[in-house]
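[[Per-residue structure]]
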Amino acid sequence: LTRAGMEELERSEHGVLVNGGQEMPAPGFRSLSLAGLDGHALVADLAVQGFAVASGSACSENRPEPSRTILALGRSPAEALGTIRISFGRSNDRESVEAFASALVKTVRRQTEQKG
């Protein structure tokens, strides 16, 4: 995720928590928790826009309960349920990452407004 995209998410009314610290814990991987939002709804909304992300951990993708891994990081159940996993590959260029960051910001904003 670009620095500008992260800064915009962090400035939004909805707190975005970066799991694993600000530096990428593994190349091409980012985990974000958004308390109060539904990770599955974020995934579905982003998929409609052409982006493939996931919620929860890879080994518990279809379970409705909070990820034990995210909870072990000290996140609340609400934060864990609002977690998405983002993976970047060699085929992702700067423009595609910026497009994703913009779509994520808009999606978070829209879903936050819908809940409010």
Remarks:
- The helical segments are 3-11, 39-48, 68-72, 77-81, 94-115.
- The beta strands are 16-19, 29-34, 54-55, 83-87.
- The CA atoms of residues 50 and 89 lie 15 Å apart.
